[in-house]
Amino acid sequence: MSEIPDFQAIADEAVASIAAADDLNALEQARVRFVGRKAPLTEVLGSIGSLPSRDRGRVGKEGNAARKAIEAALDSRHAMLEGEAMGSALLADRADVTLPGDHFALGALHPITQVRLEVEEIFLGMGFSVADGPEIETGFNNFTALNTPDGHPARSESDTFFIAGGEHDEVLLRTQTSPVQIRTMQTTEPPVYVIAPGTVYRRDDVDATHSPMFHQVEGLAVDEGLSFANLKGTITYFLQQLLGDRDVRVIPHFFPFTEPSVDVSVAWTDRHGRTDWLEVAGAGMVDPNVFANVGYDPERWTGFAFGFGLDRIAMIRHQISDIRLLYEGDLRFLEQFS
Ligand code: PHE
Q1: pLDDT, tens digit (0-9, with 9 covering 90-100), for 240-250
Q2: Angle at Cα 157 formed by Cα 173 and Cα 178, nearest 5°?
Q3: Is pLDDT at 2 greater than 80 in this prediction?
Q4: Within 13 A of 183's CA, how many CA atoms are on the CB side?
């Protein structure tokens, strides 16, 4: 017989050229050369039957071991080259995610809106509901029905933005949220427990504590047997819920539509440590004339009303000393409340 090939040498040569194959094409050529159909090793293994029987065992064993070693080398080189090919394809296709991108700013509620929502929560918890009314009002709802007849100083040009109309049928920007009291009582039967937050307008010059547009929260309770104690208790509870445990002061005042009437103040310590009373609301027992104006029986029903300055409350709440900050829209200020 032809002499028995040196299987170890074949395997060594194959493994070396497999290791040298630096792409899948070269590897395929190595595969054909060493274990393909016409490879010497394949031919030897395919003709074992024609060998002298004493050689068959050895040739079969060593030849197959060489083929296994070559195939194992092919497999691992294949896996490696494929991984590299995948890696470079990914590298070539990659998207650059290191660019800074567009900053998407998240908005937040304005501090006045935040305080309004807190106020609503507290009154909802006390059984009040939330009412709403238009900012453009009639002179009747804003003044006359609220016991503020023609000629009253509060109606004068200097306080009110009039839009249209004559002396008895003016159309105006509401100067207070109190007309929502009238609208509510005209459309519902007592008992009534409502609050009405909203924007109001007065012809004031702008300074640290005045703005021609500001916000109030009106409150109205009408029931049998309501007393001034109910008014004071409601207001004190509300203020303490919102602003923490602090003194609440109520002193006599005058409003055309309440009798008696009071001003409500809270103790406020400014950032220099000075404590003072800060007025936050007007309030009082609903004047019987107002009940008569809306068709409620003043003999049967009693009620209290209040009007809080929402901007004032926001300022106390957040130690803001200038109301203009609330309306200038300066993000450096507003971002503190997001
Ligand atoms: N409407 C009054 C004001 O704007 C406040 C107020 C409301 C007073 C309700 C009494 C009752 O000053």
Answers
A1: 999 998 899 99
A2: 40
A3: no
A4: 21
**Burial label, 196 (beta-carbon count in 10 A; 0-12, 13-18, 19+):** buried
Which CATH superfamily hosts domain 111-337? Bira Bifunctional Protein; Domain 2 (3.30.930.10)
Q: What is the mean pLDDT of the segment spanning 105-109?
A: 88
Alpha helices in 94-227 (DSSP H): 111-125, 139-142, 179-187
Q: Of all atoms in ligand 1, which is nearest to the CA of residue 261?
A: 10
Query: Is 148 a pocket residue for ligand 1 (Cβ < 6 Å)?
Result: no
Lowest-pLDDT choice from 144-153, 187-196, 254-263: 144-153
CA nearest ligand 1 atom 10, residue: 283
The rounded distance, in Å, linking the Cα atoms of 271 and 321 is 9
Which residues, including other chains, have CB under 8 Å from residue 75's CB and lie 6 or more apart? none
pLDDT at 4: 83
User: Can you tell me whether residue 229 is helix, strand or coil?
Assistant: helix
- As a whole number of angstroms, the distance between CA 284 and CA 106 comes to 42
